Amino acid sequence: MNILKKNNKILKQLIRFKWPLMIIASMFTLALIGYLFILFGGKFIFDEEAVILPRASKVVAEDGTLLGKLYTENRDYVTIDEIPDYVEEAFLALEDRRFYQHAGVSFPAVARAITRDIIAMEKVEGGSTITQQLAKNLFLVNDKTWMRKTKEVMASIYLERNYTKKNILELYLNEVYFAHGIYGVGTASDYFFGKTVEELTIDEAALLAAMIKAPNTYSPYINIDKAKERKNVALQAMEAYGTISTEEMLSYQTKNIDVQEKQEEQEPWLDDYFAYVLDEVEARYDLSREELKRGGYTIQTHIDPFIQEVAYKQIQEESYSAPKNENKEYAFVLMEQETGHLTALIAGKSYELGGTNHLRTRLQPGSLMKPIAVYGPAMELGMFGPYDYLKDEDVDYNGYRVNNANNIYDGEIMMYDAIVQSKNAPAVWTLNQVGIDYSKTILEKMHISIEDEGLAIALGGLQYGLTPIEVTEAYRPFIHHGKWTQAQSINKILDKYNKEVKQESGQKEVTIFDKQVAWNILRMLEDVVKEGTAKYGEFSQALAGKTGSTQHPIKKEKTKDAWFTGITPSYVVTTWIGFDEATEANYMDTSSDASVRLTKSILSEIHKHQELESVFKKPDDVDELEEPIELPTITDLTGDVQFGGVTLVKGKLQWTPSDDERVVYRIYRRKDEEKELVGEVTGIGEYTINRVNIFKKDMYYVVPYNSLTNSEGTPSNAVTLSFDL
């Protein structure tokens, strides 16, 4: 009985403590579950993509000049090895002195923050370690729930379990915001001080660390006094942390904040080239804009910043064509002939990203088409040479007729002169002889695809036109042994790991014209500049080129588009001046001479910076192209009879010779309506005839002869050598 009573007593006691025990057990279980949830639940909050911080891509010149950036967040990522210890310690001293001791969370601080939040019924205190700040900024930036602090702790613990302290600190120092759209210490170092993070001084590091608590309050560009006060607080923290001594702290606190002058905008002349580079990246490297905004690429270009600025500033003067008009636009291309590298690009007078890019706008080229679509193909086909005569007449081609600019027709004209004078009728006649299909085949080899099928191609009367880039590429064969290449603005692209990105499509050379054809065209284009349609303006060095213009559709005597493509031994250059829309008010009084003057002015400025060649060097494997021979008209032929010598009687003819000593003079005797070649001389104005029969009244005359064209000129006046009794 006693045992039974004892067991009942124990049972009653157990029943009495049942619920408290169950409550304790439940609380323990819940605490364990909560602990395990916090400990291991972070992986559900962690986002692998968020840890890969967006990095700005930079477009730079070979000398390091920055053309522009692309980014979602303006961040130049730096590794922890690149960040000096004192920079790290400046942030640790202010934000998390126990960073290397804790496991990611300061639980007393968290408890204190939660308590104060509950009392205030809103979030009033952070109480966050650097790891917690990083977790919050990476994974919880848009989370406004009461569970955010718990999630922050969970993510922080996960970071600490899976990343080293150095990894976490590197992410943090690259993630922090410094106002003005600047993220990370690498970007901030350059933005505020114009130096790399490795070059920062201790007081500069203190200022950066001081700013992140309230960047829009403590930025030196916003409030220099508050920035200095906060910087001194940071220096005190660094002294307490042991980074600097008290003496050093006092010394740094007396120093003024010395930041570089704030640059609100990039130099405007760089935007044009920057925009072209972005298009080329997408076309040749298969990198999207979105990838560039996050990927941290460095795009090294072929731009010469000096020449780019020169071209931009020359265009701003607007003194090369009249009348002044704010709607007048420009395009300018300067390409190295040897490599096809683009040295300078102007897309518009005041081009802005997203605006009309005239480098890629198809524009009517006018007479620029003649060398590339007519005369080059004609010589390549072997149908005509520089000294061959072309028909220069008003011809009806099944309803299509073309006029020369001055409505003067010579009947026939040497190709050489037709190019120099830029005559229309010979160009159309020649294209008709060559054939439109063959001409288009030549153009297509240079990546110029036109839909047109008519003879108006010869004069640049195209449905859609050509871009200034296409024109520049098409003239390069004349200086580069007949070979074409696609223009290129990019030297190389490096990814965030400094590895070179390969092109999807490489730069290739294509043979368009025979070397001799190319050289002949170049020499003729040189005379276009010396004495033809491109003689305007001043440039002292070697220059060849071709002009082009289009008639205004409303004001028939005015110009809509004015072109000049020039060739120097080093560069191929194209300048276009014109209007996007031809209206009653949008016109130019001047023709292509405006573009010629502008081009020569830019080249002259370049010559001051780098010496441009004074002559074109003839390749060893081509023959020189002589300048055409202009045959004189002789009207002053005289003849005398002379006595003496072996033959007793001689006849001497005299006339005024041409200044061109290459002219051959053929002497003819007319007898009974027939002519007999007596002899010829070269370069002089006299000829002696032996054995003259003074009793016959033979007529003599001189005919100038062109050895280049195998053609004779106009006969001179005739004289008689006789002796009258």
Descriptive keywords:
transmembrane helix; 725 residues; elongated; 24 helices; 24 strands; 5-stranded mixed sheet; Penicillin binding protein transpeptidase fold; membrane
Molecular structure report:
Pfam families: Transgly, Transpeptidase. This is Transglycosylase domain-containing protein. Residues 331-577 form the Penicillin-binding protein transpeptidase domain. With 725 residues, the chain is of the alpha+beta class. Among the domains are: 2-38; 73-253, Orthogonal Bundle (Penicillin binding protein transpeptidase fold), CATH 1.10.3810; 370-463, no CATH class; 638-720, Sandwich (Immunoglobulin-like), CATH 2.60.40. The protein is 38% helix and 17% strand. A 5-stranded mixed sheet has the order 2-1-5-11-12. It is elongated. Residues 29-42 and 120-126 have low confidence and may be disordered.
How would you briefly describe this protein structure?
Keywords: Carboxypeptidase, Cell membrane, Cell shape, Cell wall biogenesis/degradation, Glycosyltransferase, Hydrolase, Membrane, Multifunctional enzyme, Peptidoglycan synthesis, Protease, Transferase, Transmembrane, Transmembrane helix. By secondary structure, the protein is of the alpha+beta class.
